Amino acid sequence: MDHQNLELIENIRQQFNNTPYPRTPLEESPKDKSELLYLHNLVTAYYLRNRRVINTEGKVILDAGCGTGYKSLVLAIANPGAKIVGIDLSEQSVKLAEQRLQYHGVANAEFYALKIEELPSLGLQFDYINADDVLYLLPDPVAGLQAMKSVLATDGIIRTNLHSSNGRAGVFRAQAAFKAMGLMNGCPGELEVEIVRETMEALQDKVGLKALTWNSDRVKDEGWIMVNYLFVGDKGFTIPEVFAMLRGADLEFISMVAWRRWELMDLFKDPDDLPPFLAMSLPETSLEERLHLFDLLHPVHRLFDLWCGNPNRTQAFVPVAEWTEAQWREARVHLHPQLRTSQVREDLSNCIDSQTPFEISRYIIVPTLAPVAIESKMAACLLLPLWHGPQSVVSLVEQWLQIRSQIGVNLESVSDETAFEEVKELLIRLEVFLYVLLEP
Q1: What are phi and psi of 87, to 5 degrees?
Q2: Residue 394 contacts by C-beta under 8 Å, 6 or more apart in sequence?
Q3: I want to staple 46 with a disulfide (CB 3.0 to 4.6 A). Which of 54, 92, 122, 386 is the partner?
Q4: Helix (H, G, I), strand (E, B) or coil at 115
């Protein structure tokens, strides 16, 4: 690594030593943040790739660029029984991460002040790697990906992200402005933060940069100002650049983390009535091209947040919507672990008692585009048994028939075949969002 890059890395390290991030209070627990846990649960990514449910007991999980350890705590809670290993450039951040997990009683965790390129020195292999807000700071992101791949288990999965040049364009303009003012020479500190604050507050509200980037509610948030306006090493990328990096590291794209928020066809008024050129060309475009076009047309995502892994490790599967009747009758159903909480169950019971629809998406909204609700009686049949563990589809159909018979005064009696189709239809609907996980 040349002198300029070594100096950049040192400035980044000093920046996080001086201003450790995130500044989440030590005592704050994510145990009730179902969506955050859902996104950091190995079960989610593994099922999305393979349509199989994995047990996190005994898995080894790396939090690369762990900062003060809040995401390490999220990973520990989301993946019961897993060992958590955190690394970070900043020695001060690592100390805070250790304190955080000790405070919350997480014993199976260890932390190291280490560069990501030095990962092989740990002598460990990881089933899951979380590299959140790391790669875009590295002088060579491909080298970072290669380092993670070198310690990734054969069937392991990496979650990582890079800033979008388009989605973060305003912030990059702000950084350029403050760099021109001399505020980003070396390692910015409290003085530079105060100058940014005074400058942005002094601008008229109609000034483009202020209107695009500034949030007066966060004027006192030093960490927010630092990681946006004075973020040393911050860079943006395009989708083609991201895919080129994956290829350069011999990694295979699996999915965007918020995959439902990247659907190109959702940008059109009527996807079934496109202009002739689009109707002919879009079906032939690759996934990379579709994601790139989405980012160009509608750059709402600050991050390209994605899962990737070793090439050719996806297990072949048949989508549940294409299952045969025999596959359905042999299938087992799991409730996603992050929905198996006491609060969700209590809310479901209240909906059943009051005979009101159960809005399951209120706990995990990220994979949806609109609220997802289940009729209360169907929810009683389908979801309540899943708190006790996986259930066969056949047993859920039997439960639904029993409930129907108990309330026969309100519902017409139905055949076994009709009840089977009703249960199947709901399972297909919920599996799209990974609220339920189906294994043949």
Answers
A1: -130, 150
A2: 329
A3: 54
A4: coil
